[in-house]
Write the structure tokens for this entry.
Amino acid sequence: MVGSSLLDRRLLIVTGKGGVGKSTVSAALAVLAARRGKRVLVCEVNAPERVAPLLGAPPAGSSIREATRGISTIDLTPQECLREYGLMVLKFRTIYDAVFENRLVRFFLRALPSFSELVMLGKILHEATQEDGAGRPRWDLVIVDAPSTGHAVQLLRVPAALLDTVAAGPLRRDAQWMRDLLIDPKRTALSIVTLPEEMPVNEAIELDAEVRDVLGIPRGRLFVNAMPGDVFTDSECASLARLAEAPLPLGPAAEAARRQAVRRAEAQRDLGRARTSLDLPTVVLPLLVRPTWDRAAVEAIADAIALAESES
Amino acid sequence: MGAVADSLASKRIAVCVGSGGVGKTTVAAALALQRALDGGRALVCTIDPARRLANALGLENLGNAEARVPEHRFAAAGLAPRGELWAMMLDVKRTWDDLVARHAPDRTRRERILRNRIYQQLSGALAGSQEYMAMEKLYELATERDYDLVVLDTPPTSHALDFLEAPDRILDFLGNEAARRLLTPALSAGRVGLRIAHLGGSYIAKTLARFTGGEVLQELSEFLGVFDGMYEGFQSRAAAVRSLLADPRLGFVIVAGPNPLSVDEALLLHETLHAESMPIAGAVVNRASSSLLSPGAAPPSPEALAAALTAAGESFEPSFPARLARAVADNELLATADQRQTERLFREVEAAHSVVPRFEGNVHDLDGLARLARRI
């Protein structure tokens, strides 16, 4: 089963163009893993918090909080991650406070290239490898609801960039450790979410090339979200434009059906393009028409992912 | 012409802002096209390598230099612009290098900066770098060229403040007094390549070095060293960019999709712009679904549709009426939801409003772009 092997990784990174449904897919993957008894942590990266509210829970903020049975979430901020990282490296709170609470140093670190990305990524990877006293992993699965394309690449290329920039020292050791985890196919996979539309598919194709050639992170799935259903037969479609000219109530209904069919056909084309351009296992998720986007919608998407993987 | 394009008639610069994936680049191009059609000399500067836009404009590629959309391209689309349409794509690295060349006192200094690894990081991948260079390019285009309208497409923001704060943030870095103090005395002597021992006995510097490694601080001090003396040039230019943003001849156009997430981000942007007293020209909701029924009318039932089909003498599958009923009910649900989000945005934005409907097919030529432009 393809999907179970995806969920068997320790670290799943979910990214894609803005507005394609990354948070929904992240939440759905978490729900699916939790249904299988896994302890899951979903990390959002310095963005308006979406996952906990989607699961019907209050926002977690910058400390880990259980949203629902088996699923915890956190919204990472550079400030909080820096503090944790600093304490970890320095061991002593008094030294941390003396140095890092120093106004000048705070100013300086904020400006140091890629430092915020480094500490946030460090926190994520630290959680993904943490163990409890008995040598058991603290989390069976860490899901990263990564920022949209450009920012995600910026975040994920920090270890490689540091290895290029920094010759030696603790920063280089950390970068090496992070890079090893990110490129390990047994532990890590990056999945791309897209919509069956022209620009999002183009961006997914470019992003995938970057994941392969620049980041070197093992590739997971391509999630094609919000696919309109296959509702009308070809001969019905052929009659819809004519029926749309009819008076009420038939006219508007046929026009709605015609629009739906056109969207379906366009989406089919872009889905086809995504499939041929990307040699990635593809999971197609249905367009859900709902008045509100809530936990029930996430569960429905989780069902669709489960179904897709059982068929593959 | 739509309300938002209309409100830009008195402007020389339009800055399109909004979250990713809402069609910001297309809206930016449509605004420039509209001005060209109306007789102006208009430029659109995009951030993404928008190949489709390049194709639509009949340009091989969008590059860092401005290119004019050829006349025959307009003729082919049945358009007769009274003005000119120009397009370009921001090249972040090139813009940085140009900026360094502009401020560097001599060739040696310039080369040393371009070679420094911290600079390469800064100009390539540093968060905020793209936003800063977008502002920088805008200033150059606004002050050194002769366009009637420059439309800037901005990087998709996960944070509303990014592109307003990015220049300050990077300038903080370049001219950071804290960093200077930490890394002196070697800096003040104008020497580069100082060793960690030169970082002074400072307790803070030592702890930082433990954090980042001495190498990073060394590279950094070298970088700040070569930048020494250039900072004021950068700073005064950034201040000019900043005041340009508040110029009444500039207008921000907030672009959103009709979904809660995008409208949330648009509202946040609006709030920020408003608080900073930035001039807001209008808000555009792109790709909205439209209702097919008269207001308040309930979607037709499968039975009513079956009766209408029979009365029209159509033959149909038994399940067809139910599927039609579902299609129209779904459309209404989407249209209602989109309208609710649109209203939520427009209630807050006291400026011109435009709703662009979801067009069938993609905008892939000038004709399509012009069709869109008429609604903005």
Remarks:
- The radius of gyration of chain A is 22 Å.
- Chain A touches chain B through 74 residues (CB under 8 Å).
